Amino acid sequence: MKTILYIKASPRNERSHSHTTAQAFLSAYQQKNPQDKIVTIDLFKESLPEFDNFAAESKYAIMHGKEKTAEQVKKWSQIEKIIEQFKSADKYLISLPMWNFGIPYKLKHYIDIIVQPSYTFAVTDSGYKGLAGGKPICAIYARGASYDNDSPMDFQKKYLEFILGFIGFTDIKTVLCQSMLTDVETVKKSQEAAINNAKSIAIAF
Ligand SMILES: Cc1cc2nc3c(=O)[nH]c(=O)nc-3n(C[C@H](O)[C@H](O)[C@H](O)COP(=O)(O)O)c2cc1C
Predict the structure, then answer these.
(1) Which of 2, 55, 156, 178 could form an SS bridge with 51, CB 3.0 to 4.6 Å?
(2) How close is the Cα of 100 to the center of ligand 1, in Å?
(3) Would you say the CB of residue 143 lies under 6 angstroms from ligand 1?
């Protein structure tokens, strides 16, 4: 039995294009792999620990090879639990809206928690090394407008792919829900295309 971790990064539900597409992905996946388990992290419902002074100082302690204080160790365990949950999955699905050309702040918060030295990346003599990869991941991006791969305005897909690559993911599948704030007919067509694309990725995932 494999576990697929679904990270939902839109606060919207049935009106969310990214989440609707992710639901289609998951039902196609579950039909093909009924024995597998789906674990969902709904980032707008979770209360993630603040990445505050103690967390930042703990991170620097790890990077500089220093002992953490007893209080830092205690509080760091909250961060470790979330990293463990992330790393224990076999496959990943992330659905996210574009917000102000980037990713929603709740997803950035989650990334700031899970991207940690010695847990998800290492600093080696030959540079950074991702420690969380080697597993398949699919990202479903919704945007109001349409952006091609070279668009200088897309900090959503470019950033997510960069940070996933940084922690070691190389097998990243993409589903785009583009032009979701345009005319009804275009939105309908784009949503249908995204769902079909998501389903075909899901059955081979
Ligand atoms: C706070 C906010 C910021 C947004 N910024 C952008 C943007 O920079 N570019 C864009 O194309 N669409 C933008 N949109 C539109 C959303 O990306 C679009 O409605 C998308 O469908 C949202 O994803 P969802 O349907 O999964 O919630 C924004 C929407 C919100 C609520």
Answers:
(1) 55
(2) 7
(3) yes
pLDDT, one tens digit per residue, over 68-111 is: 888 888 889 999 999 999 999 999 999 999 999 999 999 999 99
Q: CA-to-CA distance for 112 and 18, rounded, in angstroms?
A: 22
Which is the CATH superfamily of the domain at 3-203?
A: Flavodoxin domain (3.40.50.360)
Angle (CA) 38 40 43, round 5°: 165
Domain boundaries, given as residue ranges, for the chain = 3-203
Phi, psi of 140 (to 5 degrees): -110, 115
Q: Please work out whether the CB of residue 156 comes within 6 Å of at least one atom of ligand 1.
A: no
pTM of the model: 0.96
